[in-house]
Amino acid sequence: MHARHGKRFLNARLLIAALALTLLTTAGALAAPPDDRVLPVDQYSSPKGRALGEKYATALQALNKDIYHCLPWVHVEREGIGFFRPKHLGPEIRYLSLEITVEQEPSREFAQQSAEQRASAMFSRYVGPMVRRMTRAAALVTDPMVDGFTVIVHWLKPTIEAGTQPVNETIAAFVERSVVADYLAGRARASDLAIRATVLGFDGKTAVGRLTTIQGWEDNFLTTFQIANYRLEPGVTCR
Asked: How is the chain split into domains, by residue range?
């Protein structure tokens, strides 16, 4: 990110401490995730989409299972995993897409930050780590039919005003396959990922356009956070 934007985000890294998660203290997850999170192959509107859906069906189901068991505060939306066409790109473009909603408790500190600061914090926590999960099938990074990757993250818009109608804030990050390849190979950092991605913002259902000053940094929260009293199903391993 250009230096002139740096001061605007001096406290951005501190936001992570303010993103307190809802305490999920159930004994464990159900044995299997919902079966409607991956777009069925017959629902694709193009031969390319169907071909990709068939080719990577096992990998997409594995992604759904991994998030369900290992990140229980992250909710994959119905048919939120699939090879979709970003609306701002051409008709034959297909990005592997993941749409999630994050549960977290209200935080006054988080609410007092600007929308772009909150977007930067959520980008850093979820976009890079989710891209890594989405590409555990290594062929996805080299397959020329896969044009890129999309991570859509929803969270409840914080407010410090009583009686305000709750709505979600959303970021949709579109990352070309070559950029993801650089990131996974260590040739690009999380800050580069934020610069090179196209990130769109939404306030509720209202599009706020491209977020051009969003920042990214390495955040290991998803690999280190543990929920008290939460037990994995036998045979499930998280990494």
From this structure: 23-224
